[in-house]
């Protein structure tokens, strides 16, 4: 289909690889289900050979996702391809994505191979992968800095060997839209068998051009774009999915290209990812930033009141943002609450719904206006269900600016034990509480990051806390929300510890 571009999401592979964005199996599965709802054509579930955890998540996503192609990355090595093929066994639509570098600089210094050797390896590995599945993507790593004539030659050869997609990565984010257009046109004109394969592009954002380069390539004939939610990825990130899709959508007049993505799922996908990784998007980020649809200036507001199209090129509703208004109060019943969640696009199992509803009731009792943002914050807290090794039972803090803070902490362990500890600190209630939890859990964690935000305006706003703790060179995220910011901080710390313990259990099982 000439006027159609496929969206290949690599949030779970290239995105997850970036610092601070790692996810556990349950979280990856949750994101995979959301990507399926979003309607991406392909999701890259991971790099199966990279670790037992990666293998397990590719396998689990392959088994559970039925409407989307599931890909696993593999270097051009038989052991990588074996692992990818094995992990993808249960997939309805599997794809092996194999790659080798083609630029002189990579071939000479990283691979220490001649171009003839690289060409032979690429062909041999595509043929090898083809024994396991029909759908084979071949990437020429660092393509934008490769010799175009060599690229034409290797692409022709891998298509003959069975590649169904050839990918042109701008691995180091070096190219420009004009240059990339020339490269894509060159590939179309100089690779005789190109009509037998899709042309994919994969752009990094080192110079801030990943989206522009991807869109320019699509206009020049690329029919697959690789990207990530919120643009997460190594260094400056990958091309942002939401920006690509909303460009295609808003400027259909210019691009004349359709994609399958349901734009109404964009906001939810972005929120889900930030609440899982604890990596928030900047407020002025295109499409999904907090301010992306806020018109503060008087001139804009005046124009908007007269006619929305004066300053609005896309509507908040088109990305699934509902209006931030008071919706429910303390007398609202479970049905009304469930309906509200559905209208916001959240479907929950009855157990999770009960918990969130109880939290809503507690909140509605304390807070005058309960907004969509408040409800969303509660839902995010419940987003991924993992076993809770520890739960907060209660805490008491004695604090002030002239006394030493004391935190008296009580946790419930999954074995049903009540654990209690009292800790004093000169460094305030959060320090005292975290030290008390460390003592109860029997481990001292390094707090890598602590971010607190208010969910809405007003002194009665809920506080949202994201923490990152380090243990044995791995970083774990935790999230907590409460009208009491000390409680939100405690909940976030306990959730990070539960994530860590779940991850360790998961590893034992693999
Ligand atoms: O950036 C890159 O070159 C990659 C490839 C493995 C596709 O991520
Ligand atoms: Zn990449």
Description:
With 510 residues, this protein is an alpha/beta fold. The chain has three domains: 6-277, Aldolase class I (TIM Barrel, Alpha-Beta Barrel); 322-385; 390-509, Double Stranded RNA Binding Domain. Helices cover 42% and strands 20% of the residues. The protein is built from 18 helices and 16 strands. It has helices at residues 11-15, 25-38, 52-64, 78-87, 104-111, 115-130, 148-161, 177-190, 210-219, 241-250, 252-255, 266-277, 298-306, 334-343, 350-366, 372-381, 428-441, 485-509, and strands at residues 6-9, 42-46, 69-75, 94-101, 136-141, 165-170, 198-203, 224-227, 326-328, 370-371, 390-398, 405-413, 418-425, 446-454, 463-471, 474-482. Strand 7, helix 9 (210-219) and strand 8 (224-227) form a beta-alpha-beta unit. The longest helix is centred in the last third of the chain and has 25 residues, at 485-509. The chain is globular.
What secondary-structure arrangement, pairings included, does this model have?
Blueprint: E1 6-9, H1 11-15, H2 25-38, E2 42-46, H3 52-64, E3 69-75, H4 78-87, E4 94-101, H5 104-111, H6 115-130, E5 136-141, H7 148-161, E6 165-170, H8 177-190, E7 198-203, H9 210-219, E8 224-227, H10 241-250, H11 252-255, H12 266-277, H13 298-306, E9 326-328, H14 334-343, H15 350-366, E10 370-371, H16 372-381, E11 390-398, E12 405-413, E13 418-425, H17 428-441, E14 446-454, E15 463-471, E16 474-482, H18 485-509
Parallel strand pairs: 1-2, 1-8, 2-3, 3-4, 4-5, 5-6, 6-7, 7-8
Antiparallel strand pairs: 9-10, 11-12, 12-13, 14-15, 15-16
Helix pairs in contact: 2-3, 2-12, 3-4, 6-7, 7-8, 8-9, 17-18
The site of zinc ion (ZN) has 5 residues, from loops.
